[in-house]
Design brief:
The protein contains ten helices and eight strands. The protein has a single domain, classed as Alanine racemase (TIM Barrel, Alpha-Beta Barrel). The model has no long low-confidence stretch (mean pLDDT 96). An eight-stranded parallel sheet has the order 7-6-5-4-3-2-1-8. The chain is α/β, with parallel strands linked by helices. Helix 8 (161-182) links the parallel strand 6 (146-153) and strand 7 (191-193).
């Protein structure tokens, strides 16, 4: 199957469900991304700032770039002028820096709060108490150039579907609670970014609005 075939197959599955496909293009050459682009894909995700900047400069300007990897505060300035969505916000400190750089570029940057849902220490993200504390903080209310539009989570890397299903269920439940408590009047707070190539079907079943697929589109690394 070609990249084009893969995208068309996934879009058939996701379009009627109103799930957005983010093509994870990290480590992939420009020609692979261009093939996906020519097949109609516009949203691409990267996890390294340098690679993201280089690809943004080399590829069509109507691509929506998503930062899906861990983002260090000192790297925000390199992507602030063009990034569409940052999925991996895991601290108030990072949000403040994104706000500062967004202000310099005279724009508002959309962000997702990354929640630690996996049973693994290596994954980044806020735990449930931390995310509530962040949302209640007066400092967040002062940030006029960032907009929190949802949550992101990465499930445990396991073959046990029951574990993955429970983690995604918990993230969607947390999203619903946060929506009711903090964003009831804001239509923009609507994204749940969960599901990768190995588990996206479970994620969609549990209420994902964005899936992040790499190998399902581009083949194995």
């Amino acid at each position: 199957m070609s990249i084009t075939d893969n995208i068309q197959k996934i879009k058939k599955e996701t379009d009627q469900l109103q799930v957005q496909l983010i093509a994870i293009s990290k480590t992939k050459p420009l020609e692979d991304i261009k093939e996906a682009y020519d097949a109609g894909q516009r949203a691409f995700g990267e996890n390294q700032v340098q690679e993201l900047v280089e690809k943004h400069e080399a590829l069509p300007k109507d691509i929506e770039w998503h930062m899906v990897g861990h983002l260090q505060t000192n790297k925000v300035k390199y992507i602030a002028s063009f990034i569409t969505l940052i999925h991996s916000v895991d601290s108030l400190k990072l949000l403040k820096e994104i706000n500062k750089q967004a202000l310099k570029n005279n724009r508002i940057i959309d962000c997702l709060l990354q929640i630690h849902i996996a049973d693994e220490e290596t994954k980044f993200g806020l735990d449930y108490d931390e995310v509530i504390e962040l949302l209640r903080s007066d400092e967040l209310a002062d940030l006029q150039n960032v907009r929190v539009i949802g949550l992101m989570g990465i499930a445990t890397n396991t073959d046990r579907e029951k574990v993955i299903r429970e983690e995604f269920y918990e993230l969607k439940t947390l999203f619903n609670g946060i929506k009711d408590s903090f964003f009831r009047k804001e239509d923009s707070f609507r994204e749940v970014s969960m599901g990768m190539s190995s588990d996206y079907k479970i994620a969609i079943e549990q209420g994902s609005t964005m899936i992040r697929l790499g190998s399902t589109i581009f083949g194995s690394r």
